[in-house]
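re: ur question from earlier - yeah i can do the single chain one, its not a big deal. heres the input i used so u can compare w yours
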Amino acid sequence: MLIDTVSRTGGHLASNLGTVELTVALYKCFNPPEDTIVWDVGHQAYAHKLLTGRAAQFDTLRTEGGISGFVRPDESVYDSFYEGHAGVSVSQAAGVAAANSIKGNKNFAVAVIGDGSFGNGMVYEALNHAGASKQRLIVILNENEMSISQNVGSMAKYLATVRAKPKYYRLKAGTEKLLNKIPIVGRRFSMHVFKLKSVLKNMLYSSSFFEYLGFKYIGPIDGHNIPLMCEAMQSARLAACPVLLHVNTIKGKGYDFAENAPEKFHGISKFDVNTGEPITSGESFSSQFGAALCAFASKDKRICALTAAMSLGTGLDQFKKEFPNRFFDVGIAEEHAVTFASGLAAAGMLPVFAVYSTFLQRCMDQLVHDGALQRRRMVIAVDRVGFVGEDGETHQGLYDVPMLRGIPHLTIFAPATYEELNWALYRAFYKEATLSVIRYPRGCAALQLTDAQPAPWLEDGPDGAQLCLVSYGRVRASVTEAAARLRADGFTVKVLSLLQIRPLPADAVRAAASCGAVLFFEEGAQSGGVGEAFGAQLLENGAACRYQITAVDDQFVAHASVPALLHRYRLDADGVKSAAREVLSRE
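and the output i got, formated as tokens:
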């Protein structure tokens, strides 16, 4: 069911195939929703959905009105938090465990987190804090790629199995109790025995890191062996302190194509089950960005590329191959990536950090303090801006503009064609003195190339027109089509296309002010967006025209296809024309 459904809807396949047995063991050993299970990121919780009453709706996965590709509390009582970003589960579970302790109940809080998320600094903040408690907190570290614990030979594997059994903890507790009853020397002898045991164990496991933080370490355990995992989880329940249970799994388990190419099947579009090949493929802004960056880097040895565990998704896989010494994958550590880029820039390099809009949200302090304030010439390439479609609320790229627009010494470009993307990169490298942001949507360019050379802003239509339509990014294609329809209906229309959205070109504002009505269309949050800034500048210039903004107003956007979302928020050609006709009808 997992493979067939994802082949039709797209989604996260390899990670979910790797956690099937782990999910079954969880539900055999814990009692949610009384026991809280927190899925880090939530992209590995498809089996969880199947086991919690959503099997009949599973074929609606990631479709409009259907179940989400991530966990979300409004979908099921078994989904404890909205999840979509890495590294947050341990903090959330620790908070639940603390609340359980305050209320005096015996419920457990369990965080399921992959080794990839362990590159995120927030995880260590949470471990450091929670380890000092005596809470009923269990952190399940699902290792499916890189090694964290170093295991030495068959003896280590054997002792890992022994330590996973509940009778091990019962024997340990009984032995400690017996030794403590010996008069005078009992307690001291007990302490030395278990101290020696800990030293031997840490020599074999190199697990002392977690135990120094206050966690009891169990593992590594075969994450595809349900009975063994159940024994380990029962042992974790018996511990009188927080527990880190380490399991090993194989991403893509059971489907050869996914096992052999787990990165490709991490998040995949529709594909042929029999061949594993995507049904749709081709050029995109991400791939064009990667190609353009390689072209610049071949001529300028200062150019470096950075990613936060997203080299394939951001189009940097080719750069990684061609310029390995200038490519840096920092893991899921977006904050570090920005400050690291600041260091590269300070030493004379030209760093480019490619990141999804939704993950850029983590970097505000670093962008302000380590980027703009330091006047660093560096580039933030923001992928997946605007609507991202089926990934839903946690991944929509609607908030980067409101976050960034108030930062001094920062320029933002919003190309709508691949030619404009190249132009923006050139400007960022060689014309701008400080931090530049280049933002572009998921998928291919919707706007066809024109004869006009890229510039901070473009105009089409006469001054003093009845109507001025202003937009940037992907929505420019909708506005261009709607303008053609309105002109065919006999209206005079000016179209302003913004390639640079911060700072706003003053000439563009003046050009709009001459028209009877100005309508701004923005695929992003209205509050704090470019539309509000454009309207404010119209007022400051004394414009007498009517002004209206069409954008996403104060709400989170659920999953649906990008065309469906553009239509819902009146940002497709039909919506733009309809909004314009409504304004014109009030003349």
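The longest strand covers residues 517-525. not sure if urs matches, ping me
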